[in-house]
Amino acid sequence: MIFVTTKGLFENKHLNKITMAFKGAIDVDSQKCKGCGVCVENCPTKSIELSKLVNNKGYHYAEMVGEACIGCSNCAIVCPDSVITVYRVKI
Ligand code: SF4
Ligand code: SF4
Protein backbone atom coordinates (compact mmCIF):
# COMPACT_ATOMS: atom_id res chain seq x y z
CA MET A 1 0.00 0.00 0.00
CA ILE A 2 1.24 3.49 -0.87
CA PHE A 3 0.14 6.42 1.16
CA VAL A 4 0.87 10.12 1.12
CA THR A 5 2.20 12.38 3.83
CA THR A 6 3.56 15.89 3.76
CA LYS A 7 7.00 14.34 3.19
CA GLY A 8 5.97 12.36 0.14
CA LEU A 9 4.97 8.83 -0.78
CA PHE A 10 5.72 5.86 1.44
CA GLU A 11 5.40 2.14 0.91
CA ASN A 12 3.74 -0.20 3.38
CA LYS A 13 7.08 -1.42 4.75
CA HIS A 14 7.56 1.97 6.37
CA LEU A 15 4.08 2.01 7.86
CA ASN A 16 5.07 0.64 11.26
CA LYS A 17 7.81 3.20 11.73
CA ILE A 18 5.67 6.12 10.73
CA THR A 19 2.61 5.14 12.72
CA MET A 20 4.47 3.94 15.81
CA ALA A 21 2.40 5.27 18.68
CA PHE A 22 3.63 7.07 21.73
CA LYS A 23 1.94 8.17 24.89
CA GLY A 24 3.31 11.34 26.34
CA ALA A 25 3.02 13.74 29.19
CA ILE A 26 4.54 17.07 30.03
CA ASP A 27 5.54 18.80 33.20
CA VAL A 28 5.57 22.60 33.15
CA ASP A 29 7.54 24.55 35.74
CA SER A 30 4.57 26.78 36.42
CA GLN A 31 6.49 29.34 38.45
CA LYS A 32 8.95 29.94 35.58
CA CYS A 33 6.34 29.96 32.80
CA LYS A 34 5.53 33.43 31.46
CA GLY A 35 2.27 32.43 29.79
CA CYS A 36 3.36 33.41 26.28
CA GLY A 37 1.28 30.62 24.72
CA VAL A 38 3.89 29.54 22.17
CA CYS A 39 3.66 25.96 23.36
CA VAL A 40 -0.13 26.04 23.08
CA GLU A 41 0.09 27.16 19.45
CA ASN A 42 2.63 24.47 18.56
CA CYS A 43 1.05 21.41 20.12
CA PRO A 44 -0.30 19.17 17.34
CA THR A 45 -2.74 17.42 19.68
CA LYS A 46 -4.09 20.51 21.46
CA SER A 47 -2.87 19.12 24.74
CA ILE A 48 -1.80 22.39 26.33
CA GLU A 49 -3.85 25.29 27.59
CA LEU A 50 -3.09 28.31 29.71
CA SER A 51 -4.40 27.84 33.22
CA LYS A 52 -7.12 30.04 34.64
CA LEU A 53 -4.85 30.31 37.67
CA VAL A 54 -1.74 32.48 37.80
CA ASN A 55 1.75 31.86 39.14
CA ASN A 56 3.67 34.05 41.60
CA LYS A 57 4.49 36.50 38.79
CA GLY A 58 0.86 36.84 37.76
CA TYR A 59 1.15 34.82 34.54
CA HIS A 60 -1.44 32.29 33.40
CA TYR A 61 0.90 29.33 33.14
CA ALA A 62 0.71 26.46 30.64
CA GLU A 63 -0.66 23.11 31.69
CA MET A 64 -1.38 19.80 30.02
CA VAL A 65 -5.01 18.95 29.32
CA GLY A 66 -6.59 15.68 28.26
CA GLU A 67 -4.88 12.43 27.31
CA ALA A 68 -3.86 13.09 23.72
CA CYS A 69 -0.21 14.04 24.24
CA ILE A 70 2.07 11.94 22.05
CA GLY A 71 5.34 13.14 23.53
CA CYS A 72 6.49 14.84 20.34
CA SER A 73 8.46 17.49 22.27
CA ASN A 74 7.33 20.37 20.06
CA CYS A 75 6.27 22.32 23.10
CA ALA A 76 9.59 21.87 24.88
CA ILE A 77 11.54 22.83 21.75
CA VAL A 78 9.66 26.07 21.14
CA CYS A 79 9.38 27.19 24.76
CA PRO A 80 11.64 30.26 24.97
CA ASP A 81 12.41 29.61 28.64
CA SER A 82 12.85 25.83 28.51
CA VAL A 83 10.40 25.20 31.31
CA ILE A 84 8.72 22.11 29.83
CA THR A 85 9.87 18.55 30.46
CA VAL A 86 8.46 15.87 28.17
CA TYR A 87 7.93 12.24 29.13
CA ARG A 88 7.26 9.64 26.46
CA VAL A 89 6.60 5.92 26.38
CA LYS A 90 6.03 3.65 23.40
CA ILE A 91 2.59 1.97 23.33
S1 SF4 B 1 4.85 16.74 23.77
FE1 SF4 B 1 3.84 17.25 21.79
S2 SF4 B 1 1.76 16.43 22.01
FE2 SF4 B 1 2.63 16.54 24.09
S3 SF4 B 1 1.98 18.52 24.90
FE3 SF4 B 1 4.02 18.82 23.96
S4 SF4 B 1 3.60 19.49 21.83
FE4 SF4 B 1 1.70 18.59 22.66
S1 SF4 C 1 6.11 28.36 25.73
FE1 SF4 C 1 7.05 28.11 27.79
S2 SF4 C 1 6.90 30.13 28.76
FE2 SF4 C 1 5.47 30.13 27.02
S3 SF4 C 1 3.48 29.45 27.87
FE3 SF4 C 1 4.52 27.62 27.14
S4 SF4 C 1 5.62 26.81 28.95
FE4 SF4 C 1 5.09 28.94 29.38
Instruction: Tell me the Rg in angstroms.
Output: 16 Å
Question: β content, as a range?
Answer: 35-45%
Number of contiguous helices: 3
Count the domains. Answer: 1
Helices and strands, in N-to-C order? EEHEHEEHE
Low confidence ranges: 1-10
- Class computed from helices, strands and strand pairing: alpha+beta
At the fold tier of CATH, the topology name is: Alpha-Beta Plaits
Question: What report would you give on this structure?
Answer:
- The longest helix is centred in the N-terminal third of the chain and has 5 residues, at 15-19.
- The protein is elongated, with a radius of gyration of 16 Å.
- The strands form three sheets. The protein has a two-stranded antiparallel ribbon with strand order 1-2.
- With 91 residues, it is of the alpha+beta class.
- The protein has helices spanning 15-19, 38-42, 74-78, and strands spanning 3-5, 8-10, 22-28, 48-54, 60-64, 84-90.
- The protein has three helices and six strands, in the order ββαβαββαβ.
- It has one domain (21-90): Alpha-Beta Plaits.
- It is 16% helix and 35% strand.
- Bound molecules: iron/sulfur cluster (2 copies).
- One iron/sulfur cluster is lined by residues 28, 33-39, 62, 79, 81, 83-84.
Secondary-structure map with pairings?
Layout: E1 3-5, E2 8-10, H1 15-19, E3 22-28, H2 38-42, E4 48-54, E5 60-64, H3 74-78, E6 84-90
Antiparallel strand pairs: 1-2, 3-6, 4-5
This protein binds iron/sulfur cluster (SF4) (2 copies).
How do you describe this structure in short?
The chain has 91 residues and is α+β, with helices and mostly antiparallel strands. It contains 3 helices and 6 strands; from the N terminus they run E-E-H-E-H-E-E-H-E.
